[in-house]
Amino acid sequence: MREGSSMKDGVESVIQRKLGFDVLKTLADMQQVHPLLFRYSYRRRNPGRFTPDSLMDLTLDLPCRCPRCGEGIFKMKSNWKTTKMLGLMMLANFLIYVVVEVSRSYGQGRDIYNRRKLTPKKFWKKPEFSQAFWNREQERLDDIYYLPLANGSDAPRDFRGIPLWLKHVSPCRPDSRVLTEIEDFKSLPKRFQDFLLYMGCRSYPLITDAPNMCSEPPYLLLAVKSIAPHFDRRQAIRESWGRAGILNGHRIVTVFLLGNTAATDHFPDLSDMVKHEAALYGDVLQWDYRDTFFNLTLKEVLFLEWFGTHCASAKYVFKCDDDVFVNTRHMLAYLGNFSVSKTQDIFIGDVITNAGPHRTRHLKYYIPESVFRGVYPPYAGGGGYLYSGNLGLRLRMISRLVTLYPIDDVFTGMCLKRLGLVPEKHMGFKTFDIEEKHRENPCAYKSLILVHPRSPQDMIKIWSWINDPKVKCCIKTTLNTKCAM
Known about the structure:
extended; nine-stranded mixed beta sheet; 13% strand; signal-anchor; golgi apparatus; Spore Coat Polysaccharide Biosynthesis Protein SpsA, Chain A; glycosyltransferase; manganese; three-stranded mixed beta sheet; Glyco_trans_31; 14 helices; alpha/beta
């Protein structure tokens, strides 16, 4: 019953409000004011019958009439408590607005401060003076030249401060600066002293040339690093994987890179033998510099200069040592998967990453802290690597602006880094050999590109396996499966 009565009262209240508003509207029209204003005034004059709905019900009164002009004037009537409440509310809103704006401005200012501080802090920071001689020399080059990180084609302009090696000055003289700029120079191994004294020399005359090797543009140029006494290795390469001519429809050219083996290093005089070999095969490049381990980097840059001048038309270059076996057929098959235009930046090999200089003095790759500090960029092991002819021309250019480093494959990695490139690791390069149990299995070499090390006899033997049509390789699925060896 109570619920029914309550609902009835609610309906009546709504009807009364509706009727009341209609009456108010009629009265308001008579006095030419808005019905809501009339309603507020009417409710104020009859406080007992209505409950206020808002604060404005307590303050807004019906406009009065000005006796002079007859225009309506709003009249605000309220007591002291109401006025105080409105003032406090307005003050609170104002204070909130001030706090928000100040916080926003402070936050924006702090962000701007941080943004300005991040980049210029490094940009304007005074470079620290390197304690290592190689680092200082490279920093000097970086300060003098703009390094073409993409596609360098023109030699740097000749201006004051240009390195001597770009002026092609010969003969080269030792750099006496190293005696005073490297604190422990006198205590370094003799090989380091020699390297540092002549580190700025890059121009040496070519004793033996092979100018007609690339008269017809080769598809693949095989550049083999060797020394004069290793005739047996060179001959084995000529008779096996490095045989020049047409292979699988592609022209192959092979050159051997030599320096001068001096009596200083206790080598016998083999100059006449090398001249005869060069005349017989026409594939020997020999420069008049001391052929040592640390000068392998010099051999690298001298080859790049020869390549850019005499064999720039080669599509691909394979650079390797003379104690490796190379499956040339598989290499050509691999390159056949790509168009030449898609392999302009190709550089593959057995890539080494996260490496640094060895500090143990008796190791072959020992580098003193006074010579170099830092980490090595990714580089391919010097046993062998493959790159495009286009990239070879860029390596030629950028190598002029990188200080010679004692380890040739690390130096090549430094040049690649300057070009913004990273060598790609290929599983077909085994510069640390394969498992011993597979070394006499012909099929183990079918899918490889390079295996290191191999003797001259091994090269000829494995090459015969690769080209023997009777050798069939298969995957053993059962114990009864037979594969021809």
